[in-house]
Amino acid sequence: MKQKYLLYVLLTSLLLYYAMPYLQPFYGGTFGLFSLVWILFALLVLSGNFLAFLSAPKGEKRLKVKTAKAPLKRRMYQ
Description:
single chain; mainly alpha; 0% strand
């Protein structure tokens, strides 16, 4: 399970690394607002996945749940 969060952190970091030269948050106008919101949202995604990565349990074991079988109902004809 931790591998999924690590993959998401790495992909988000890659997206930020690729997008930062094209985004100018202090440009002004709609483009600057879009850039600022995009960067903040990417940082929110990055921090959320990083915290999930840190708080995920180390060894997750899947528990096998045994279901009790209901006794077969037999029809009694008279």
